[in-house]
Amino acid sequence: MNDRTLSDPEVVRVEKGGRVLLRVINAAAATVFWLDSGEVPGRLVAVDGQPVQPLPGTRFGLAMGQRLDIELDLPAEGGAWPILALREGAHERTGLILATAGANVPVILGMADEAAPAFDIDLAQEAALRAVAPLTERVADASPMVMLSGQMQPYRWTINARVFEDRAPVTAISGQRVEIMFHNMSMMGHPMHLHGHHFQVVAINGRRFSGALRDTVYVPPMSMVTVALDAGEAAEWMLHCHHMPHLASGMMTTFAVSA
Ligand SMILES: [Cu+2]
Q: What is the CATH code for 11-119?
């Protein structure tokens, strides 16, 4: 976390009873993390820079490319509080320490006793998010499906059965309302990222709701996530999985917006 490991973590000086805004970026190439504030109560207040209705909790996950803003309310007494990032499905962890002046800073091991669980297989976290400023209700002009597939042997990940060089772009006219349904037919999760736009998550496995506004949505294995957006500036915008080996082997296309 911030280029440090738990053997020599960053220690951030905080005030007793203070409020901290953690702005977390998952900049890893292929690792999903849980951000765990331990004893300190938190609230998720934004995803990918877009405000959500505050969601209380002490553990929130983020896939590659995603960002979380988490507010923390520190205890009134002095102390030191580890903020940990747990690797999904594994024992490895990293983190930093929030500490008041003079507090004893604990030593935290880089390996946890128990493996952290898998992230959002049932989309419970995504389903709990609500945009503060949702898109206006509008009938979609187009509702393309984007099928996510892949295999390990040979290593090849695709969008609508095509790699990037052979892509069939998702098309729209600037200003159109488009609802893209990501349909994951593979056994791995894919954080799907669109450049140049924020979209709103409007359905999970066919169930409509008014979810978060964001630019990267995690699509677990064998799941369907629908996002709505108003097509922006005329350009060819990248649309891709944010798992770098998936992207590099083909899981990338474009959202081609014309004037
Ligand atoms: Cu992927």
A: 2.60.40.420
Distance CA 55, CA 104 (A): 30
For residues 160 and 170, give the distance between their C-alpha atoms in angstroms, rounded to a whole number. 10
Q: How many residues does the chain have?
A: 259
CA of 243 to the centre of ligand 1 (A): 5
pTM of the full structure: 0.96
Q: How far is the CA of 212 from the centre of ligand 1 (A)?
A: 21
Q: What is the pLDDT of residues 14-35, one digit of tens each?
A: 999 999 999 999 999 999 999 9
CA of 238 relative to ligand 1 center, distance in Å = 14
Whole-angstrom distance, CA of residue 24 vs CA of residue 1: 10
Work out the average pLDDT over 121-146: 97
Q: Does residue 49 or residue 153 have the better pLDDT? A: 49
Query: Tokens representing 115?
Result: 């493996």
Q: How far is the CA of 7 from the centre of ligand 1 (A)?
A: 31
Specify the CATH number of the domain 145-258.
Answer: 2.60.40.420
Q: How many angstroms is it from 127 CA to the middle of ligand 1?
A: 20
Predicted confidence (pLDDT) per residue in 165-182, tens digit: 999 999 999 999 999 999
CATH 2.60.40.420 in the chain, residues? 11-119, 145-258
